[in-house]
Specification:
The chain has 11 helices and 15 strands. Helix 6 packs antiparallel against helix 7 and helix 9 runs antiparallel to helix 10. The longest helix is centred in the middle third of the chain and has 47 residues. It is elongated, with a radius of gyration of 26 Å. The chain binds adenosine-5'-triphosphate (ATP) and magnesium ion. The site of adenosine-5'-triphosphate (ATP) has 22 residues, from helix 9 and helix 10.
């Protein structure tokens, strides 16, 4: 019988295929090895990381040195869940950490960092989509039903006002004014439901960003500074230019509304990054390398709604309808893209990731 054996050297292949960032750390806390997922996570090549102190680049919000010492002493792994991990200038990401001493020499430790980010949000995004669909379907139906009796109420109030004295007329005017406000809100809801299918073509992301920036600066973002930090070599994306501009406008508007104080800054950043891949229900993986970040230095998401902001009708503002981000989420998912948020007080980042336009389109 032939031996039951894999036809390649196992450790190397496993190391390279491990889908979560992994580092091998020596007794002096320097990096011995980093796998490809780790290189992407830390945004450095393994060559430049090798031999460097591990926690120069990687900040883990937990007593990590103590955990290492314990893992070494007990020769057993340690798991730390839900810790913030930051690398370089990126906002912290929640991760689950595993610290495992090597089998044959516990001076050497394997550090596995599993970001909760993507897994959590994949799940969340699915539920957002279906929740949005049913909430909006319901709201649309209601909107339609409520508008008729509202017209009746408003008409009756106008009739009463004809024979009313000044004092009563104030009240009938209030009825008319408030019904008008409700109709406006209902129109918005109906419009949301009617959003047309995107008319997609090759689009320069910076053109759409610029249109949104200019329109913001003459209106709601007049009190802000908007800084551009673009990668000019970004290839075109495949999008409906008007809907894309609507997405950016909504995100800039939210940032401007969150930053009440003058002197606040919104940074628009674009960059190319191949690491975000989504596996679609109907096909293979899709790569979303075009990244647009809208970064503000405001107070951050209100914690009580932070996990629900993409749901329709969730708002942390006095007069907000809570449809802005639901619309962003709908448009981006119609474009097979991805939107996510990282927020800590002083730094909120909305990141939109989009596909590259098909080659043929670029030439058109
Ligand atoms: N950049 C940000 N900083 C802090 N909080 C934000 C930011 N963006 C969104 N939010 C919070 O998320 C909530 C939902 O945003 P969304 O755009 O969906 O609705 P809205 O702005 O309240 O209303 P609408 O956009 O329909 O006028 C906001 O009310 C706000 O509390
Ligand atoms: Mg908004």
């Amino acid at each position: 019988m032939t031996p039951y054996r894999l036809p390649y050297p196992v450790p190397g292949v496993i190391w390279a295929s491990l889908p979560i960032p992994a580092l091998l750390i020596g007794p002096d806390m320097r990096v011995f090895e980093v796998n490809p997922a780790g290189e992407i996570f830390l945004n450095v090549s393994s060559k430049s990381l090798m031999g460097q102190p591990a926690f120069d680049r990687l900040a883990i919000d937990a007593p990590i040195e103590e955990a290492f010492a314990r893992a070494r002493a007990n020769q057993s792994p340690i798991f730390i869940n839900d810790v913030d991990v930051s690398t370089g200038e990126r906002a912290p990401i929640q991760c689950n950490i595993q610290i495992a001493p090597m089998h044959d020499n516990s001076d050497y430790i394997m550090l596995l960092i599993a970001p909760r980010d993507i897994a959590d949000r994949l799940g969340r995004s699915m539920s957002v989509k279906s929740a949005a669909k049913s909430a909006i379907g319901m709201a649309e139906m209601l909107a339609h039903e409520i508008k008729n009796p509202l017209a009746g109420i408003s008409g009756a109030a106008q009739l009463i006002s004809m024979n009313a004295n000044a004092e009563d007329r104030e009240l009938t005017d209030l009825i008319v004014e408030e019904t008008r406000r409700i109709v406006k809100l209902l129109d918005q809801v109906e419009q949301f439901g009617n959003l047309r299918k995107p008319d997609r073509r090759a689009v320069n992301i910076h053109d759409a960003l610029d249109r949104a920036r200019k329109s913001a600066l003459v209106g709601f973002a007049a009190h802000m500074t908007i800084v551009e930090d673009y990668d000019p070599s970004l290839p075109p994306t495949f999008a409906d230019p008007d809907q894309l501009m609507q997405v950016f406008l909504n995100l800039i508007k939210n940032a401007a509304e969150a930053c009440r104080t003058t002197g606040s800054t919104i940074r628009l950043r674009t960059y190319y990054d191949l690491s975000l891949r989504l596996r679609r229900k109907n096909g293979g993986p899709s790569v979303l390398p075009l990244n647009i970040e809208i970064i503000d230095d405001g107070p951050g998401l209100p914690p009580e709604i932070a996990t629900d902001i993409f749901e329709p009708f969730v708002s942390g503002r006095e007069n907000g309808t809570g449809l802005g981000l639901a619309l962003v989420s709908k448009i981006i998912s119609d474009h097979e893209g991805w939107v996510q948020v990282d927020s800590v007080p002083g730094r909120t980042v909305f990141r939109v990731s989009l596909p590259v336009a098909p080659k043929k389109m670029e030439a058109d």
